[in-house]
Amino acid sequence: MLELHPNILRKNGKEEFVVLPYEEFVAMQELLEDAEDLKLLREARQENAHEPGISLDEAKKRLAI
User: Fold this and answer.
1) Following DSSP, what letter does each residue of 6-51 receive, concatenated?
2) Three-state SS at 56
3) CA 30 centroid distance within chain
4) Three-state DSSP class for 63?
5) Three-state secondary structure call for residue 57
6) Cα-atom radius of gyration of the chain, to the nearest Å?
7) Of 9, 29, 31, 52, which is least surrounded by CB within 10 A?
8) 19 and 7 Cβ atoms separated by less than 8 Å
9) How far apart are CA 41 and CA 47, in angstroms?
10) Is 16:10 a contact under the CB 8 Å cutoff?
11) pTM, two decimal places
């Protein structure tokens, strides 16, 4: 789990912005990208659920040049 150390900036007494250390920002960005990739993968698998699968050996044969 990512541990964050946010600094909250207030404007007129209301929480307005959050400032993170750069390393934490980059780590959070990578986690969000991974989550988006996983979402897209799950959607693609669901869309192609009716398609027959192939074995790893068959995939390797098809990709061999």
Assistant:
1) -EEEEETTEEEEEE--HHHHHHHHHHHHHHHHHHHHHHHHHHTTTS
2) helix
3) 6
4) helix
5) helix
6) 21
7) 52
8) yes
9) 10
10) yes
11) 0.67
